[in-house]
Amino acid sequence: MKQPAIMSFRARILCAVFVLMSISLVAAFAQTKKSADNKQPANATTAPAKKSKQTPAKVAEKPPVERPKYVIAVTHGGRPLGNIVVELFPDVAPKHVRNFDSLVSAKAYNGTAFHRVIAGFMIQGGDLNTKDPNKPKEMWGMGDPSQAKVPAEFSAVPHKRGIISAARTQDPNSATSQFFICHADAPQLNNQYTVFGQVVSGLELIDSIVKVKTEFVAAEGTYSRPVEKVEMTITRKSQYVISVKQGKKPLGDITIETLPEVAPKHAANFDSLVSVKFYDSTAFHRIIPNFMIQGGDPNSKSKPKEMWGIGDPTQTRVPAEFNKLNHIRGMISAARTQDPNSATSQFFICHGSPTQLDGQYTIFAQVVSGIEVVDKIVALPCGQGGDGAMSAPLEKVEMTIRRK
């Protein structure tokens, strides 16, 4: 019989940290099974305070806080499962959001795993140990004690299904890279763990993750660790500003957001072109009200108008990434020839809802703000274009595009 291996002092410390982190969440989970006899019911109310006769002073409205979005691409045993799109709350937990964003920027999460899965509770991941081939599964969840810790930022935001919160040990100020996504409401965690984001799409993927086969984890006494690795890659969704003018007259800005979760190659192609200022001085050369505006042809920078829209045959082509999104007002899709795999730099923004294009053209972005600028563009006077329609602006409608 083999003698049990003797743990080093460091390993024992790490194990203790892991146990504290696991017990902290498990104990909270167990509270959902206890009654709340000594608590007020959720719909309990108190008498409203007597209203003052004084007219309240007007308070200046604060501009809405931009909430960054990220795509968590998930695989199970090397097989793609899909994508979870999340948005973070810098207005609620700014330090946690900055920490998460810095880790994403450094690609620290890529290759890590959702190492802890409990149906009806949550999925937990982000431990850097899970991507280190020299770290055994038994160390997954223990974390790295040398990581910078983020102080608690508890708030009134409740732990509901889809909420993202920071994992920690029993020390409230011990959060690092690990986080969990609530599979179900977990009110017992309110004001004890820092909420810093929420899922905006892909909740059904979490339902799939909690169903994967798990193995027993002795440190917490539950079957919670997936037998096959549930691996993640996290990227930030990018936004861009399209500034439009006609002649010397500014028409306004259109802010758009790419959708790498459905068209990663097209999103990457667009980003690479923006990064080298490829689109600057190109035109929206084709305008059809209630249909779309099309632009991005390099020929529209300086070549004769008759060549606008023809494109450059030497440009790199992007293979089709048809998806389930619909061509509705504000969606952005890749222009192409009759060859589905011929997209390059040209794109169109839907002014109407040409759903007849669904499944035939690759949607890769959407308008976030500035759709009224598209309305201005389609109202401009046009002459006959290369398509035989009155679609060619009489005066160049020029764009520049920058990353926001």
Structure report:
The structure is a single chain. It is built from 5 helices and 20 strands. The protein is of the alpha+beta class and 404 residues long. The chain folds into 2 domains: 10-30 and 65-236, Beta Barrel (Cyclophilin), CATH 2.40.100; 239-403, Cyclophilin (Beta Barrel). The strands form 4 sheets. It has an 8-stranded antiparallel beta sheet. It has an 8-stranded antiparallel beta barrel with strand order 11-12-17-15-16-14-13-20. Strands 8-9 form a two-stranded antiparallel ribbon. Strand 13 and strand 14 form a beta hairpin. The N and C termini lie far apart (63 Å). Mean pLDDT is 88; it is low at 1-14, 16-20 and 32-53.
Summed over residues and divided by their number, the pLDDT gives a mean of 88
Biggest sheet details: 8 strands, antiparallel
Distance between the termini: 63 Å
Roughly how much helix do the residues carry, as a percent range?
Answer: 10-25%
User: How many separate helices?
Assistant: 5
Query: CATH topology of the largest domain, anyone?
Result: Cyclophilin
> According to CATH, what is the class of the largest domain?
Mainly Beta
Judged by helices, strands and strand pairing, the structural class is alpha+beta
The fraction of residues assigned to DSSP E strands is: 25-35%
